[in-house]
Every structure is written in C-alpha cells, then in structure tokens.
Design brief:
By secondary structure, this protein is mainly alpha-helical. The chain is 69% helix and 2% strand. Strand 1 and strand 2 form a beta hairpin. The protein is elongated and about 90 Å long.
Amino acid sequence: MKIQSYITISFILLTGCAGTQGSKTYMANGPSKTEIVYAPAPEKTACEKSEDFVRQGMIFARLNNLKDSELEFKKALQLCRTNAKAYLNLGVIYIQQKKYSMAENNLRMAISSCNKNAATIRANIQTIQKEKSRAEESYRKLRRLTALVRSGKPAGFSLQHLLIISKKIAEYSQGGGFSSDSFNHFLLASRKINEAINQLAEIKTNSTNIVFSPEEKVQIEIKLTKMERQLAKINDQLARIQKEKQAHMKEMIRIPPLAHYNLAAIYSLTGHTDRSLEELNTTLELGFKNKETLEKDADLYNVRQRPEFKSLLVKYGIFR
C-alpha cells in the first residue's frame, strides 16, 4: 500500500514496513534551518549536526538497512535530545523490528519534543517581530539624520560622535553575532546596533550650530550610508530567520499526527484496540485525513473490526 503525500514539502516521506503484514508507516524528514551567513560561514550547532544524522538515517532506511538507520537516529539524539524527527523515525524503525515498547517510548518523546520546540519557536518569532520593529525605527532615525546632514542643518552630533558609534556598529556586526551560529548571539548584536543608532540620534551637543566642513560631510554621509546598509542587512536577516522559524513551526505541527498514528498502529497490532481508538481520535483531531491509509493499512486491521472505528471516521468527516 502506497502512502499518499499527506505531508507537504517540509518533509520527505519514506514508506517502510511495520508489523507482520508489511504495511507502510510514516517517516518524516526535511530541512529545518537556513544557515545564517554573515562574514565567515558559521559552525553548525549541535542540533544542526543532528539533522545531518537524521538525513543519513533516512538513506539507510530507504535501503532497508534498519541497523545502521537506527544507529544514525541514535547519534542524532545524542547531539540534540529534542530532535522530534529522530524520535519519530526511530519509533518507526522499532515498529519494523517489532520492538513495540521501545517504539512507543520514542513516539511519545517525539510528541513531547514537538511541544517543547513549538513553545520555543513561538517565543523566538515574537522576539524577532519586536526586534524588526526596533530595526525599522532605527532605520528611520538614520534616514532623518542623513537628511539633516545633507541639508546643512545641525544634526546634534559631531563627527567624533559618529566615528565612535560607527566603530561600535562595525564591532557588533563582525564580532557580536552576525557570524555566530547562535540565534541569541545574533539578536544581541542586532539590539546593540539599534542601541548605538538610538544613542547617536539622541546626542545633543552643547552647541546646536555645529557646521561640518565639506570633507566632514562626505565622511558623515559615507558612514551613515554604511550604517543604513548594515541595518538593512539586519532587517533582511531577521526576515529570513522569521521565515525559517515559521517553517520549523509548520514542521513541528506535522509530526504529532504521525506519531499518534503510529501509536494507534502499535496498539492495534498488540490487541489493545481501546487505546488504538484513542490514538486514532487524536490523530484525526490533529488533522490527519488520509482515507485510503485508514481503510487499508494492515497494521490497523484489529482496530478496524471495532464498530467505533467507522463512527470515529464519520465524526471527522472521513466517511460520509
């Protein structure tokens, strides 16, 4: 029985045998990052390296090399204990090996990890949105300062002030986080740059009649323009990170239905049809709608004999 492409492009599906009758179960994998590259390419985080092992495990699984596939998923979890895809795929491997207790434990860990990851991602997205607002306000301030300098009106700061702030921003850009693999380090650099720009915009010298020489004007415009470009890069990077986090959130949302489906298969295979019905109810509640799989998956044979099975599918609009 061929699994339909229920999961969209965030995952690569792999069908595999589970149970004695060779039915297919779900395995999921897909890109979960967009590498931040400012200055030198960053060293991968432990969780990013973990994804590499998940991908290698998928290759072995496609070749039906369950032993090596299992080892790769375990390596992934050694690096990142919250890798939900590794737990999910390891659970499926154990179903194929008829190690149902181990499969159940890993599927439960996949669900738990998804919930934790989703909470972190939501918080990150909110933080990014706030930081983008700060960066946009800083950009507007810079544009106003540039306009003042070009018009010959007092900008409130001296060339010395500008050079000090510009040096700070350059340091934050290169050493403060843009080349870092840490999301938190990048946000810290962004905040420091915004603070520096705000400091520049709020400087008020003793004399409001500072007149810049033509040479100073050129230097100031060059510095301000460079700062605008750096700030535009921050905004662009924040937008990319936000998109990455949103994609990761969609990925997290897709894993629990698959984990609950496989739990339903385990309980059906082991004759615990009451528990299988409970897991199927959760699966359908989370949005699983694959009618063909529910009707034909051999692992669900036992639970399909229960009259409640059809009622459950009617309840969620699978059967009319």
